[in-house]
Design brief:
By secondary structure, the protein is an alpha/beta fold. The chain is 19% helix and 28% strand. The strands form 2 sheets. The chain has a 7-stranded mixed β-sheet. Strands 7-8-9-10-11-12-13 form a 7-stranded mixed β-sheet.
């Protein structure tokens, strides 16, 4: 299994429009972050988790010419704002794109992309086949997928993370219950969001993410969904435990199946 970080930035990406801070002016490619998403490849299949506004750029940058599905964590624009661009895959693969999303996320998709669900749609609109995602584990082309439900702001705002074999990916979380943590335990690689050093109302801070890493004890941990407020990659990295590092766009991780 190979996982590629297509984007590791927060909702505004890095650099942020109009910002002149040291991070936004950095020329280090590890400080330049598209909106968060990963590409998962195994046994000839590939899918992405989240499809934000940078989806087209990410597919072109990493030469992704086909995907088997998209899994969506939640309904915020930085995680589903690129769905219109599946049209290219529809055209070349001659089939709709399978999208796995909770009922709440499906409602947003049907509202924001209403033109794709009309009875007589305009030719060339995105073809999306929705699959209902819940907390129940499921199989995707023989790969076990365990959804992990986490709090994003409060109990009415939640996000799904996913465990694929020994790899777990969580973004946009601020709290995870014991029951859901138990689904993650034993993962060799864990990815958690870490917005910045200061606490935030809807995302883990660096300290909170590191504390959870210490509790769950993966062999390797990565931090994603990082804002410009976190600081420069070269200055933050030395502060991290040996088993944890800041993810960056283009980073690839390989696990044995």
């Amino acid at each position: 299994m190979k996982i590629t970080f297509l984007g590791t930035g927060t909702s505004q990406g890095v650099p942020v429009i109009g910002c002149n801070c040291r991070v936004c002016r950095s020329t280090d490619p590890r400080d330049i972050r598209l909106r968060s998403s990963i590409l998962v490849e195994w046994s000839g299949y590939r899918f992405v988790v989240d499809c934000g506004p940078d989806f087209r750029q990410q597919m072109l940058r990493y030469n992704v010419n086909s995907i088997d599905a998209i899994l969506l964590t939640h309904a915020h624009k930085d995680h589903l704002g690129g769905l219109d661009d599946v049209r290219a895959f529809n055209y070349f693969l001659k089939k709709p794109t399978d999208v796995y999303a909770s009922m709440e996320v499906q409602e947003t998709i049907r509202r924001e992309y209403a033109y794709a669900f009309e009875k007589e749609p305009y030719p060339g609109v995105p073809e999306i086949y929705l699959h209902t995602l819940s907390s129940k584990p499921f199989q995707f082309n023989n790969l076990p997928v365990i959804p992990v439900r986490a709090t994003h702001f409060n109990n009415r705002h939640f996000v799904y993370g996913f465990r694929f074999a020994d790899f777990t990916y969580i973004t946009d979380a601020v709290k995870i219950s014991k029951k859901e943590k138990d689904k993650i335990r034993g993962s060799k690689v864990i990815v958690l969001n870490a917005l910045r050093k200061e606490r935030h109302y809807s995302h883990f801070s660096l300290e909170e993410a590191l504390a959870l890493m210490a509790e769950l004890k993966p062999e390797q941990g990565y931090l994603t969904h990082i804002s410009h407020q976190m600081g420069l990659y070269t200055e933050v990295s030395p502060l991290l435990p040996d088993i944890v590092q800041l993810a960056y766009d283009g980073l690839a991780v390989t696990l044995s199946e």
